[in-house]
Amino acid sequence: MAKLFNISEATIIAFHSLAMMDNNELVSAEKVATNTFASKNHVLKVLNHLVRQDYIRSIRGPKGGYMLNKMPENIFLLDVFELMEGPILPSPCGLTMDQCPFKKCVFGDITFQLTEMFVEFIKEKTVKDISEINLKGIEV
Question: N or C: which end of the chain has fewer CB within 10 A?
């Protein structure tokens, strides 16, 4: 099945990892990997990136894990998205062409509209907002 938006697995892991964490209880990489159906190695790579950017902190040891390093209401999804994917730049072309061979884009301005809607949606959402969503029985 085709996807309209292509958000990397790393970004999806980052969003879900942050949603599973709080400032008081540790979450293991294994728990994130199990709940996101991602490989532990990929999860560790994402978590270490979030640690380096000061969003979360890592506690080593047999009972170690990860926890938020900021208040969840102060972590905006747009910031996390751009951390993982780079800046969002609206593109008029679904083919990412520099010059269009047509007089008028076959997509009209829908790509700009969709990008704007997506940015507006994640600009206002925080980790607190997504962590309050029912996590389908996930134990964290």
Answer: N
In angstroms, rounded to a whole number, what is the distance separating the alpha carbons of residues 8 and 81? Answer: 10
What are the two backbone dihedrals, phi and then psi, of residue 123, each rounded to the nearest 5 degrees? -65, -35
Decide: 120 and 66 in contact? Cβ < 8 Å. Answer: no
| Rounded Cα gap, residues 46 and 64, in angstroms | 17
Select the more confidently predicted residue: 69 or 24.
69
The three-point CA angle 30-34-38 to 5° equals 95
Q: Which of 57-61, 84-88, 98-102 has the lowest mean pLDDT?
A: 98-102
Does residue 90 lie within any of the structural domains? yes
DSSP state of 136: T
Neighbour count for residue 19 (Cβ, 10 Å): 21
**What is the total count of domains within the chain?**
1
Residue type, 52: R
Distance CA 63, CA 24 (A): 14
> For the domain that residue 70 is a member of, what is the CATH number?
1.10.10.10
Summarize pLDDT for 52-63 with one digit per residue, the tens: 999 999 999 888
Question: How far is 40 from 129, CA to CA, in rounded Å?
Answer: 26
Contact present, 80 and 18 (Cβ < 8 Å) = yes
